[in-house]
């Protein structure tokens, strides 16, 4: 009762990173609320899920293990969560803002009349005063997300209905082990108590998954370009530099909107959040929407012809000049000194 629940996405027996990130954040929120952190695993052959998640501070792991539950289909997973939440009455329920979470979250929240905030980039606990109704609410979940195309950041609350539900983007929260020796309780549930046979009317006959060709989130070095790169040809320079130093190429929203680079490489509030060891920002002014997606990089180098560009304020090193002249020199000197 009144605990915090995280839905685990599981692929081939492995808990996805977005779920582990949510467990890390969930543990911190649960500590603030003085409640338990509970996780829900739905799928097949889940015997090793516990050893993956308990170290993230999970107090209770709910297992729903049945061959028909993997791969994911909408109806049985929805029925399980709806009936489990009616039984356990969590105050908060979190899941990833993935293709699964975007399908599952609205179905569950609609069935429970609870509401849902999608694509959150931050979660906090706080109070709220409703002056017209003369009410004060304590320990609400602040569900924070970009709105109006990323031009503002909205804080959304759900004062009255439960659970407070949110989906969270992958990569915006850190994945950190809470305690390697943490021990929680495992509850194995009977599927027939939660799912009707009619929910299994859809079965997956054949499944094809194509791995992403861009691994920008896990890259230790990122060379990112903004609108200041001028064109696709300008981005070819970035790809040359990235190839030389073993990096991935990223882009600001302005560069993606201009067609200089593909959307899969977009970094920021409306793109991917990254934490590389080295981030080289080329021709990026540094609007707050972009900075939100890369400010936790270990080392930031800004290359810009504007000495007053906002990104310079968070950069460890600033190179003022034209990127078209500076990047070829970087490639030349790197090759010269790496022989």
Number of helical segments with 4 or more residues: 8
Q: Kindly report the average pLDDT value.
A: 91
Distance between the termini: 62 Å
Principal-axes geometry comes out as: globular
Question: What class would the helix/strand composition place it in?
Answer: alpha/beta
Helix content: 25-40%
Unreliable stretches covering 5 or more consecutive residues:
none
Strand content: 25-35%
Order of helices and strands: EEEHEHEHEHEEEEEEEHEHEHEEH
Task: Tell me the number of strands.
Answer: 17
Task: Describe the largest sheet.
Answer: 7 strands, parallel
> Compute the gyration radius: what is it?
22 Å
- The strand line-up of the biggest sheet is 7-11-6-1-4-5-12
Can you offer a commentary on this structure?
The protein is of the alpha/beta class and 339 residues long. It contains 8 helices and 17 strands. The protein has helices at 17-33, 49-53, 74-88, 99-112, 232-245, 253-257, 288-291, 323-337, and strands at residues 4-8, 10-11, 14-15, 37-43, 60-65, 92-96, 116-120, 122-130, 135-147, 152-156, 164-168, 185-188, 221-225, 248-251, 278-282, 299-304, 317-320. The strands form 4 sheets. Strands 7-11-6-1-4-5-12 form a 7-stranded parallel beta sheet, with helices on both faces. It is globular.
Summarize the structure.
By secondary structure, the chain is of the alpha/beta class.
Question: Which features would summarize this protein structure in a list?
Answer:
5-stranded parallel beta sheet; single chain; 17 strands; 339 residues
List the helices and strands and how they pair.
Elements: E1 4-8, E2 10-11, E3 14-15, H1 17-33, E4 37-43, H2 49-53, E5 60-65, H3 74-88, E6 92-96, H4 99-112, E7 116-120, E8 122-130, E9 135-147, E10 152-156, E11 164-168, E12 185-188, E13 221-225, H5 232-245, E14 248-251, H6 253-257, E15 278-282, H7 288-291, E16 299-304, E17 317-320, H8 323-337
Parallel strand pairs: 1-4, 1-6, 4-5, 5-12, 6-11, 7-11, 13-14, 13-15, 15-16, 16-17
Antiparallel strand pairs: 2-3, 8-9, 9-10
